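W.,

You were right to be curious about this one. When I first looked at the sequence I had no strong expectations either way, so I just let the prediction run and decided to look at it fresh. Below is the sequence, 169 residues in total, followed by the output.
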Amino acid sequence: MKKMGTWKIRLAAFCLAGTCLAAGAGALAAGDQSDPLVTLSYLTQTVLPDLVKSTQNKADAKAQELTTQFEQLAGQSGTGGSASYQVVTLSAGQRMNLGLGAEVMLRVGSATAGAAVNPALVDTTTGENLNHGGALVQNHLYMATMTDHYITAGGSTVKVLVRGSFSLS
């Protein structure tokens, strides 16, 4: 009886070994031409550089497109609009109406900010708001964050640097 039990155990072990060998052979066959493996060196030396180059090309193209659009929008601004700063001289009491996003820097003289709704301008130098009637500080850069905002020249000739759309009245 004991021999019969040993024989069954041996048969089961033989079948198990055969199954393991078949699975191992299947695993060893992986990586051939029909089922290739990807190596780390292939990823780091081929795939990654190609991916980085492709992404950089797309980013450069998009940056150029956005720059062109920005320059077109800046060039379409109303009277006195420009993508670069320009010097504008205002006489005493003269008003400069600023378009949305226009930037202005007081260089000579004095001026006050004006708007129907506060804040009239944002002082980008300090990050604070300048309300209606507030005096501009020389060499601070101000931005109009809404339409219908303006500056009014003080009692003497005023010189400002301005970028964006504006009109004089």
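Here's what jumped out at me. The radius of gyration is 37 Å. And, maybe more interesting for your project: The mean pLDDT is 84.

Coffee later to discuss?

I.
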